[in-house]
Design a protein that fits this description.
Number of domains: 2
CATH class of the largest domain: Mainly Beta
CATH superfamily of the largest domain: Galactose-binding domain-like
Distance between the termini: 128 Å
Shape: globular
CATH topology of the largest domain: Jelly Rolls
Order of helices and strands: HHEEEEEEEEEEEEE
Structural class: alpha+beta
Length: 325
């Protein structure tokens, strides 16, 4: 441990003072000249005093030095610690940043290049491969739906009856109580040469009436003595398994439901009484009329009339569905 200049001067002063004290002690001997023996005896005492002074000086130096070291060390440690932490930290950060930044930048660049390029190429290839597979089935699926939805189900019959051939018409008009006219919707029979539908009455001067445009789409007013005549042909049909006569509409009576009946040159028939409800919206009502038809008849005349209990109908559409085997 190095001692400062002030410390060394203090030690020298202590040692010098010790030697002065020793000298003064030897000169101030109380014994007179007549005591030679005592002087010889006291000489060891002077030596002991000098030794004690020397010990005191060493002790003072040691104690002072320890005190100085302790006192001086605290400020030195504080200063050194602050210096080391501040300077070292700044130095370390500067060096680390300078060394790490270029390395980090170099690491980042390859990663970006590697991730972006291979993934993009793979994704493009995946998209190209998936597109033909996904698009093609969708297009193929759409085609069957259009065909099925656009055409009538069950051989062309829309009333819900089962059949292989159909004849269907719709009654139209320009408003309430306007003249009713026929719109021919479908005829898939083998012979379509005979195909005509009219509305008539046993009353003279009758004009077909279109009505009920407020509760439904409207239709022919089939009331009283009014009837519908359907002319068609079953030529080309070898055997008839079933024939259904159906009407789309409602009973035109606010207090009662209705029904309908039919006749041909081959037979007659009627739907159950009260089959046709008087409520809106319109519905299809079907009845089995197989006994009124024969296969291979090129001159079929079908007449449809209103039935009980109301005896009055609004007929929007008429369908005859043939199940030929």
């Amino acid at each position: 441990m190095m001692m400062r200049g002030s410390d060394r001067r203090a030690v020298r002063h202590v040692v010098l003072a010790a030697w002065v004290l020793v000298a003064l002690a030897s000169c101030a001997d109380p014994r007179g000249p007549d005591e030679p023996v005592d002087a010889k005896v006291d000489a060891p005492d002077a030596v002991e005093d000098s030794a004690e002074a020397a010990v005191d000086a060493v002790t003072d130096v040691t104690v002072d030095a320890a005190t100085d070291v302790t006192v001086d060390a605290a400020p030195d440690v504080t200063v050194d610690t602050m210096t080391d932490v501040t300077v070292d930290a700044m130095t370390d950060v500067t060096i680390d940043v300078a060394m790490d930044t270029p390395r980090d930048a170099r690491d980042a660049a390859p990663d970006v290049a590697l991730d972006a390029a291979p993934d993009a190429a793979v994704d493009v290839r995946d998209a190209a491969a998936d597109a033909p597979v996904d698009v093609a089935p969708d297009v193929r699926d759409a085609a069957p739906d259009v065909v099925v939805d656009a055409g009538p189900p069950l051989g062309g019959c829309v009333s819900g009856a089962a059949g292989t051939h159909v004849a269907r018409v719709r009654w139209t008009g320009s408003g309430s109580r306007s003249r009713a006219t026929v719109s021919y919707e479908a005829n898939t029979l083998p012979d379509r040469a005979r195909w005509r539908v009219t509305a008539n009455s046993r009353s003279i001067g009758y004009t077909p009436v279109f009505d009920d445009v407020f509760l439904g789409v409207g239709g022919l007013d089939l009331s009283g003595t009014v009837f519908i005549d359907v002319e068609l042909s079953t030529a080309g049909l070898a055997r008839l398994s079933n024939v259904t006569v159906a009407v789309f509409g409602r009973s035109f009576n606010t207090t009662a439901s209705g029904s309908y009946a039919w006749q041909t040159f081959d037979g007659t028939g009627a739907a159950p009484s009260g089959l046709v409800a008087n409520s809106a919206p319109y519905q299809w009502y079907r009845a089995d009329a197989t006994r009124a038809f024969a296969p291979g008849n090129s001159g079929v005349l079908l007449r449809i009339t209103p039935g009980p209990p109301s005896g009055s109908l609004i007929v929007s559409r008429v369908e005859i569905c043939f199940d030929a085997r």
